[in-house]
Write a structure and sequence with these properties.
The chain is an alpha+beta fold and about 120 residues long. The protein has one domain. About 40% of the residues lie in helices and about 15% in strands. It has a two-stranded antiparallel ribbon. It has a two-stranded antiparallel ribbon with strand order 3-6. A two-stranded antiparallel ribbon has the order 4-5. Helix 1 packs across helix 2. The longest helix is centred in the C-terminal third of the chain and has 31 residues. About 10% of the residues are buried. The model has no long low-confidence stretch (mean pLDDT about 80).
Length: about 120
C-alpha cells in the first residue's frame, strides 16, 4: 500500500527505478486511537496490532514524526494511530488522483508527439 502510488520509471541508461513516492497526510479524526507506550515498541508490531498489516508501520511513523532510521518507538511516547477507515479512504483517494494525473500526462505526451 505504501508504494501503490509510486511509478516505476527508466532513467537515461534504461535502468528501472521508483519515482518519488507521495506520502499522504492523514487528517485527525475522532475515531483515531491514542496510546502511550510504556516500554520500547516497534512500529511494525504496532501496525500489525492496529491494522493487521505490519507493512503499514510507515503510516504510524508519518503521523507521529517517527521512523527516521529506526522502527523503535521510545518508552513514554504518545502516539496517534489513525482510524483504519480513514486510512483506507485517504489511500483510495490518493491512488485515484494519481491515476487521473498519470492518465492526463500520458495523453498530453501523445498529443505532443503527434504534433
Amino acid at each position: 500500500m505504501r508504494y501503490a502510488t509510486t511509478d516505476i520509471i527508466k532513467d537515461e541508461t534504461s535502468r528501472r527505478r521508483l519515482s518519488s513516492t507521495i506520502i499522504p497526510v492523514f487528517p485527525v479524526s475522532p475515531d483515531d486511537v491514542y496510546i502511550q507506550t510504556t516500554s520500547n515498541e516497534r512500529l511494525d508490531k504496532l501496525a500489525h496490532t492496529f491494522y493487521d498489516d505490519s507493512s503499514l508501520w510507515w503510516l504510524i511513523a508519518t503521523c507521529n514524526g517517527l521512523g527516521k532510521g529506526s522502527l523503535v518507538v521510545p518508552r513514554d511516547t504518545r502516539l496517534r494511530i489513525p482510524a483504519n477507515r480513514n486510512v483506507k479512504e485517504v489511500m483510495n483517494k490518493l491512488n485515484s488522483e494519481r491515476w487521473v494525473i498519470t492518465y492526463f500526462i500520458a495523453r498530453l505526451i501523445q498529443i505532443c508527439v503527434k504534433s
